[in-house]
Amino acid sequence: MRPEPDPNERTRGLPSTPRAARTPELHPIDAVDRVEASLADELAPCSYWLREGRTYGVRCEGATSLEVGADRLSPAWPGLFSWTVRGSVGRATVRGVFEDGQRSGPLDVELVARRFDGPRAQLRFVRAIVESIEREALADPFRDRHVEWRASVDYDSRKPPAPRALLDALSRDGLALAAALDAVFAQPARDARTVSARVRLATDAGDVELSELVSADGAWDQDARGVATSKLRGRAPREAWGSTLEWTADCAENRLLRQRLLAVLDASSSRSFDGALAESSAAVRASVRSTIDAVRRSLEHEPLANAHGAVLDGERARAACQRRDGYRAALRWIDDVYARSTLRWPTVQRAASLRDAATLYEVYCFFALARAIAAALGTSVRFNAAPSSSALARGATATFGDDRTLLYNSDVAAYSGSLRPDFALVRGGAVELVFDAKMRVRDGHERATDEAARVDLDKMHAYRDALGVRAAVCVFPGERSMLYRTDGTRSADVRLASLVRGKSEGIAALALCPERAL
């Protein structure tokens, strides 16, 4: 009979996680790595990270199962679970599930792929992938099915907008922001507020002034025979407490605009922005820097310089800004940048929020392969949204000048049923090539530059056999490509152009990754 785990055993790793409704509590019992302080904000709410392929113990006393994303784990012992991290990377939420259906409080951890040294390297990869997808989103590839969009008023302006989106806006229409700021300075917003102060009284004050002073204070005794009247003997104090109006620029409109402009400056000082700006023409660089300087100067002078108060009611502040031309135009310009900073495709939005590197890489590969195929064929590419959608989703396509089409996550008929490769290149109704985007590396290899995993190459054999295609290609983020020809030879010189034009047959591992990702 197996012994019960010792309840007094010293646990290491994460502290206990608060439960939503009742004890017991959820916490790992194996040592784990803590997220370093410099990454805490970007990886929030995760405080710890776990390595893909490793097994961790999780204790949740009283729980009948453990919920890890969409998966359910059964206990190895009562309240004790064994969890091997596999299948996904990025943010994961773990909850204990009890017999009555209640769930424990969430435990959020960052799952790091085995190919990366740690969360910093994986985060750098995710950033590069997201930047590449943002460039595609800014170009609005599904413009024929475009749906009007605007940033909502509740976006988190404490975080800067995406550097690429900001650079695109500054390059296209930076002068509009500068003109809006000029209008703000021409007609600045100010609030009148009542302040208490000691007011000097002249002994020969007129009737109007004295009447206002008396009526403002109900404690005045108007009885001429009163004690105070007789003792003062006609004399008046030199000063008295009164109220006066004061005009201030520290108002809701200026606070809101200052907050937004500070976020713009924050984004413009990032390395991503500098790198993208360096790739622009000299004229664009000069124009962008001129607009950024105008933003910086506006924050150094009234009415924005001293608007340091908190924005307590964002909607009311925005409503006040809408009544002033300069403020309205400036906020509309910044709202547009934030809207373009938000990836418009729901699949990508969710993947980006969870730092799901695998899903983001798949989306990146769709656009990168489409661009590369168009270049190989010497033609243009047209992106088409999925049916009944205005976004990137299953069923989206990329069509080229001839009769070729690249399918995204579409079912392809096989002799035993149907399969769904990530991408399929179709010509005249027949599938010629299939592609699968994979994040794994070969067993025993730990660096991102290594070759594709053997299990993924085996899957390419299955695709090629079942679908009868000319070639099946595993696309992975690395450097060591390899083509395995049907005649038994192999070559490290894998060219997508030769695969597309029908000069190569077999299976292949194709390294594909944006710059600065690894």
Please explain how this structure is put together.
Strands 12-13-14-17-18-19-22-20-21 form a nine-stranded mixed β-sheet, with helices on both faces. It is an alpha+beta fold. 35% of the residues are buried. 35% of the residues lie in helices and 22% in strands. It has 14 helices and 22 strands. The chain is globular, with a radius of gyration of 32 Å. The model is unreliable at 1-24, 144-155 and 442-449 (pLDDT under 50). The protein has helices spanning 40-43, 119-138, 163-186, 207-215, 227-232, 252-268, 271-278, 282-300, 314-321, 325-341, 346-354, 357-377, 454-467, 496-500; strands at 26-28, 33-34, 48-51, 55-60, 63-68, 71-73, 80-84, 90-98, 107-112, 191-200, 239-248, 381-384, 397-400, 404-408, 412-414, 417-419, 423-427, 430-437, 471-476, 482-485, 490-491, 506-511.
Helix-strand layout with pairing:
Elements: E1 26-28, E2 33-34, H1 40-43, E3 48-51, E4 55-60, E5 63-68, E6 71-73, E7 80-84, E8 90-98, E9 107-112, H2 119-138, H3 163-186, E10 191-200, H4 207-215, H5 227-232, E11 239-248, H6 252-268, H7 271-278, H8 282-300, H9 314-321, H10 325-341, H11 346-354, H12 357-377, E12 381-384, E13 397-400, E14 404-408, E15 412-414, E16 417-419, E17 423-427, E18 430-437, H13 454-467, E19 471-476, E20 482-485, E21 490-491, H14 496-500, E22 506-511
Parallel strand pairs: 3-9, 18-19, 19-22
Antiparallel strand pairs: 1-4, 2-3, 4-7, 5-6, 5-8, 8-9, 10-11, 12-13, 13-14, 14-17, 15-16, 17-18, 20-21, 20-22
Helix pairs in contact: 2-12, 3-7, 3-8, 3-10, 6-8, 6-9, 6-10, 11-12
